[in-house]
Every structure is written in structure tokens, then in C-alpha cells.
Design brief:
Keywords: Disulfide bond, Glycosyltransferase, Golgi apparatus, Lectin, Manganese, Signal, Transferase. This protein is α+β, with helices and mostly antiparallel strands. It has 19 helices and 26 strands. The structure holds 2-acetamido-2-deoxy-beta-D-glucopyranose (3 copies).
Length: 648
């Protein structure tokens, strides 16, 4: 009996175990179905989407209406036809106008309320039942080490972002004089066009709410969210549904990847406001940002304006106000920079509220009259994905009758990414976009670019961009040439002379290396080093007729001497230049002689560094020193021109 009893007990335990296992398997199946629901709709899956977990299972998806209207018919007579539109099948999610249901009342997606944190949200949905709780708990556990994963996925700490209210207010950063500014009663209406591709939920929605919370209703025509073929699950039906409850927000989805320019052009073609405000999908607006922009555009419809772009830290999401004055520029590699330029600051107290003409504007936030945008050629449809479109637009606007400026009483913060949000499918994409700019807009000056980006040069040698349409546009609009742009709009940009045998990589015979300065290192140290020659144009320098050796893509840094060290320092504007910066190249001996000291430039490898020199000066492979002239190969140099003088 006891034996039998024990056997029954064992069987019972087995049965329990099996039942448990079965239950577990069923639960797992149900869960994985939940997980996969959104994934199965997209071909590629970008990892398990976290958001849809908090949806109610079984709730019907929002109906998506295929917009069958011919987009070409909708474009007004003044609008340039956009080829990409005709090829696209547009999916429209109609905005349910006048809905009285604020999104906060819905329980089917995560809503971030001011002051709520993850824990309170996790328990805010009692109807989830046991299964839902299990999932949430599981996520809570996984979250502890998910910050790194978030940074890898998005280029910023999305875990921190999720804990911050979608309606957070930025601390006041405007100049006090701005608060007293008065704007016209009848400003034009604005359409905010926000393109996104796989943006994080919190940053995207914070951008939208920030616009809705700060832009006066009478001026904000609409917010157009344009989905540039996102793959992440949370940007699918959950977003459609969320948006359908927001007044004045429309969602447009492209079924083809358009890139920034194409995506914004699509939004522009659908916009009804008089002024387009293009905005990146990870921004937060300062109070009163819209009115100063609209005022400047209303005064002159060919004016393209940007707010001061403040910075949101990618790790902490702290808001950091940018110092005024600031303007947008680009260098000879066609890379864009915001330039803090105290020299431009007048003693005029008005300068705190006065707009500053800017040779270029970043792509983060941009306000432009809708008709002017179309008539000046929208964005170049030949540009791929992203990068460079802001420089193309800048040169075009200035050259073809418009202007650009930064408006200091308008501030919008932009989330700085740790790394680019999307990886380029191929690294040459950026070069191809640059080539389009160089060939369309830079005339003979494009050679200066190709010498500093030899990859672009070699691509250009094997293929020609089709810029027929853009050249036609340029002719049709009677645009000015690049020489005019350089002398009138951006006279501060140094124009390299790039003389044969006096420019290129500075090659040292004794070490077989090239003069180098680690890119990205700030100028506090400034010590030049030597490094293997790259052949990319990154080590390009230019000995000009002023006898300065100009360095860097701006050509704004000069070979200078600090004791026996050769360092870089900002080149002075004055002419003739200061004697400490003058060098003479003796072609016969290959010596580069510092004119003030009459010492010669010598390359010294790391192990050859004299004991007296401070250890930290050169952590690189070596350094450049001034030494009494001799004929040692370490004092023999030549300028290696990587790109034939004929140019591209
Ligand atoms: C804010 O910006 C300034 C200047 O760019 C920088 O020195 C400072 O570290 C930044 N602060 C934060 C909190 O990021
Ligand atoms: C360049 O593009 C235009 C239209 O944009 C087209 O008509 C032309 O055939 C293209 N040329 C080449 C060589 O592909
Ligand atoms: C050299 O650099 C290290 C860290 O890189 C620093 O701790 C040290 O103080 C520096 N020494 C000098 C002399 O600057």
C-alpha cells in the first residue's frame, strides 16, 4: 500500500509537472504571439518591440485608408512636380477631428504623464491580468542593463528619455530682451513637418507634444508626421492610434524610403500652412519659439530662418542652452558646423534680439515660406537618404535670391546623438551627395573640395551624377555663381590656393610618414604629430603666398611655433600675416624653414622624443619640431598632391 501510495504521489507530481509545463508553453506561445504581432507585419524585425506589450490583445487595429487621390493633381500650379510622389502609394491616417478623448484616457498604449515614472505606469493597467504583469516584471528585470542596448540602438539613452515627461518644460534660456519683443498680430500660419525613421517613441512623441504645447493655436495649422518607412513595431498601429487622438496632427506614411529631403518634400506637398517648419523628430521647443520665426518670414518670404539650436544631452537628456551669437557654416569637405562667433557680436545692445545672417543653416529646424520652398526647388531629389541636404539648400537659397538667418529669440533644443541615428547602408553615400553639390553649385571651386575628400574624387572619376534637372533649375532661376556666394555671403571662408608642389599631404622622407593632427582633438594642446599617410585628404595642407601653412577643412588653422614644438593655432585675419606663422619651402633640399627662427621642420618619431619635452604633448606616433637645419632625411619634405591639378 505504501509503495502504491508513493507511486500515485509520484504520478501525481509528474502530472502536475506536465500540466505546469503545458501551461507554461501555452503562456509562452501567447506571449510570443503578442511579441510577434507587430513584427510579422514588417519584413525585418528590429528586436522585440517593447511598447505593443501594453496594448490590449484583441483590440481592432485602426483602419488605414489608402489614399487614392492623384498626388500630382493636388500640387498647385506653383509647386514643382515631385516625381517621388507619383511613385508612392500614400497611406493616410485620417485625423479624427474634434475628438474629445485625450490620449491619456486610452489604456492601449503607454502614455507618459508629467511626473509619472516607470513603476506607476507598470501598474496603471489593472486589466492586464497576470500575463500582463508577468511581462512587465520581465521587462523591469531586463531593463537594468538595457541602457547600453538603448544607446546602441538609438544613439542616445532611451531608457532615461522614457522616464521624462512628454510634456516637460524647458528652463527659460532666452535673452531677457526677447521677452519684451512684440510680434505682428497677423502672422502667417505654419505647418510643422516632422519626418522620422525608426525614431524612439518617447523622443518622437515629446517632439510632437512640445510643438503642440508651445506653438500658439492660431498660427499652428497642423503637425504633419511623415513616416519614412520605419520598421520598428511601436511606430506602426500604436502610433497611428495615438496620433488619431491628437487634434491637428496628421500622419503620412511613405511606402518607400525617401531620405530626409524626399520625406520633407512629401510633407511639404501635403502641408496647408503658409510657412513650413521642418523639424527633426527629436526636438523640444522653448516657449515662444514660433512667433519670431514666422515674423521674419512674413517680412520677407525669401528668408529662410532657424532658431538657435540648443542641445539635449544624449546621455542625461539635460537641456543645454547654446551661446549667442551662433551661425551655420560649412567647410571645404562640405561638412556643416554651428560656429560660435563672438567676433560677430556688436557692442549694440540690440544684437541680443537681432537676427544674424548665416551662410548656411542646419537641418534640425528650419522655417521657410511654402511657396518659396517649392519655387526655389524644394530638396534635391537626387540626394540619397540623409546628410548634406542642408548644405545644398543653403547654397541654393542664397545663390537663387533668398537669404538665411538665425533668429535669437527663438530657441529649439535638438537631441545630440552619440552616433548617427541610422547607419549608412554604404559609406560612399555621403560622398555621392557631396559630389552632387560640388558639381551643381561650386563651379571651379569644386577642385578644392575634391582635394580634401579623395574618396569623392575617385567616385566622381568612375561615375557622373545626373544633375541635368538641377542645372536646369539653376539656369531657370538665374542663380548666381559660387564665387559670388563666397565673396558676398561667406567671405570669412578661407579660399585655399592649393598650388602644385606647395599643397597636399606633407610627406616626410626620413620617417615615411605625413604631418598630421588627430581629428576631433581640441586645440588646447595643438601639437602637430606625424602619422601614416592616409591618402584621404584628411592630412591636406596648403602653403599659400602669405607663407602660411594652412591646415584643416576650413583652412583656418596655421602651422605655428611654441618653443621648439610645431603646433596649430587659429590663423589671424590680418594681412600680412604675423611673422611667427611664416614658412618657406626650399624645393631643392625639401626643407621647410620657419622664417622667424630660421629653424627647419623636423619629424621626430615617438622613441626619439627628447626627455625634456613634456610627456603628454605627444601621445601620438611622433611630433614635429624646429631644429637647426641640416640635410637629414627627417628634415626632407614634399607636398604630395593626391588629386591631379586638373581636378575632377
Ligand atoms: C553645456 O555646454 C557647454 C558649452 O558647450 C559645456 O561646456 C557644458 O559642459 C555643457 N553642459 C552640459 C550639462 O552638457
Ligand atoms: C538624367 O535625368 C533626366 C531627368 O531627370 C533624364 O531625362 C535623363 O535621361 C537622365 N540622364 C541620364 C544619362 O541618365
Ligand atoms: C598627463 O596625462 C594624464 C592623463 O592622461 C594626467 O593624469 C597627467 O596629469 C598629465 N600630466 C601632465 C604633466 O600634464
Amino acid at each position: 500500500m505504501r509503495l502504491w501510495g508513493r507511486a500515485t504521489a509520484a504520478r501525481r507530481r509528474m502530472l502536475c509537472l506536465w500540466l505546469l509545463l503545458l501551461g507554461f508553453a501555452l503562456a509562452t506561445l501567447a506571449l510570443s504571439d503578442l511579441f510577434n504581432r507587430d513584427r510579422s507585419r514588417t519584413q525585418q524585425n528590429p528586436g522585440p518591440p517593447r511598447r505593443p506589450l501594453q496594448r490590449f490583445p484583441g483590440e481592432p487595429d485602426l483602419e488605414v485608408i489608402v489614399d487614392s487621390r492623384d498626388p500630382a493633381l493636388e500640387l498647385g500650379a506653383d509647386l514643382a512636380p515631385l516625381k517621388s510622389l507619383q511613385e508612392d502609394q500614400l497611406l493616410f491616417v485620417p485625423s479624427t477631428q474634434g475628438t474629445k478623448n485625450p490620449p491619456q484616457k486610452k489604456g492601449s498604449y503607454k502614455v507618459l504623464l508629467p511626473g509619472t515614472n516607470r513603476d506607476t505606469r507598470a501598474t496603471a493597467h489593472p486589466t492586464h491580468g497576470e500575463m500582463g504583469k508577468a511581462v512587465v516584471l520581465h521587462l523591469e528585470g531586463a531593463e537594468r542593463d538595457s541602457e547600453i542596448a538603448a544607446v546602441q540602438k538609438y544613439g542616445f539613452n532611451e531608457v532615461v528619455s522614457e522616464k521624462i515627461s512628454l510634456h516637460r518644460r524647458l528652463p527659460e534660456a532666452r535673452h531677457p530682451a526677447c521677452l519684451g519683443e512684440r510680434y505682428s498680430e497677423s502672422l502667417p500660419s505654419a505647418s510643422a513637418v516632422i519626418c522620422f525613421h525608426d525614431e524612439a517613441w518617447s523622443t518622437l512623441l515629446r517632439t510632437v507634444h512640445s510643438v503642440l504645447d508651445t506653438a500658439p493655436k492660431q498660427y499652428l495649422q497642423e503637425v504633419l508626421l511623415v513616416d519614412d518607412l520605419s520598421l520598428h513595431g511601436h511606430l506602426k498601429n500604436v502610433l497611428s492610434e495615438y496620433v488619431s487622438h491628437l487634434d491637428g496632427v496628421r500622419l503620412i506614411r511613405s511606402t518607400r524610403r525617401l531620405g530626409v529631403g524626399g520625406c520633407r518634400a512629401l510633407g511639404a506637398a501635403r502641408a496647408a500652412g503658409e510657412v513650413l517648419v521642418f523639424m527633426d523628430s527629436h526636438c523640444e521647443c522653448q516657449k515662444g519659439w514660433l512667433e519670431p520665426l514666422l515674423e521674419r518670414v512674413a517680412q520677407d518670404r525669401t528668408r529662410v530662418v532657424s532658431p538657435i539650436m540648443d542641445v539635449i544631452d544624449w546621455q542625461t537628456f539635460q537641456y543645454n542652452a547654446t551661446q549667442w551669437p551662433v551661425r551655420g557654416v560649412f567647410d571645404w569637405k562640405l561638412d556643416f558646423h554651428w560656429e560660435s562667433n563672438p567676433q560677430l557680436q556688436d557692442k549694440d545692445p540690440e544684437s541680443a534680439v537681432q537676427s544674424l545672417r548665416s551662410p548656411a543653416l542646419g537641418g534640425g529646424v528650419l522655417a521657410i515660406d511654402r511657396h518659396f520652398f517649392q519655387s526655389v526647388g524644394a530638396y534635391d531629389p537626387g540626394m540619397l537618404l540623409w546628410g548634406e541636404e542642408q548644405i545644398e539648400l543653403s547654397i541654393r537659397v542664397w545663390s537663387c535670391g533668398g537669404s538665411m538667418e538665425v533668429v535669437p529669440c527663438s530657441r529649439v533644443a535638438h537631441l545630440d546623438h552619440h552616433h548617427p541615428p541610422y547607419q549608412f547602408p554604404d559609406q560612399e553615400l555621403l560622398q555621392r551627395n557631396k559630389i552632387r553639390i560640388a558639381d551643381t553649385w561650386m563651379d571651379a571651386y569644386r577642385k578644392i573640395f575634391y582635394r580634401r575628400d579623395t574618396l569623392a574624387h575617385f567616385i566622381r572619376q568612375s561615375e557622373s551624377p545626373n544633375i541635368t534637372e538641377r542645372l536646369r533649375l539653376k539656369r531657370g532661376l538665374g542663380c548666381r555663381n559660387f564665387h559670388w556666394y563666397l565673396t558676398t555671403v561667406y567671405p570669412q571662408l578661407y579660399i585655399p590656393q592649393d598650388r602644385p608642389a606647395l599643397s597636399g599631404e606633407l610627406y616626410n622622407v626620413g620617417t615615411g610618414s605625413c604631418a598630421d593632427y588627430p581629428r576631433g582633438q581640441d586645440l588646447q594642446d595643438g601639437a602637430m604629430s606625424i602619422a601614416p599617410c592616409t591618402g584621404t585628404g584628411s592630412q591636406h595642407c596648403d602653403l599659400n603666398s602669405e607663407l602660411e601653412v594652412r591646415w584643416g577643412p576650413m583652412g583656418a588653422l596655421c602651422f605655428d611655433a611654441r618653443g621648439e614644438r610645431v603646433v596649430l593655432s587659429p590663423c589671424p585675419r590680418q594681412r600680412p600675416t604675423i611673422s611667427r606663422l611664416r614658412w618657406k619651402f626650399i624645393k631643392l633640399s625639401g626643407q621647410l624653414v620657419h622664417q622667424q627662427s630660421q629653424l627647419c621642420l623636423e619629424a621626430v618619431k615617438e622613441e626619439g622624443l627628447p626627455q625634456s619635452s613634456p610627456k603628454n604633448v605627444s601621445t601620438h606616433t611622433g611630433g614635429l619640431f624646429l631644429r637647426p637645419c641640416n640635410h637629414h632625411p627627417r628634415q626632407q619634405w614634399h607636398f604630395e598632391q593626391l588629386v591631379a591639378p586638373k581636378g575632377a
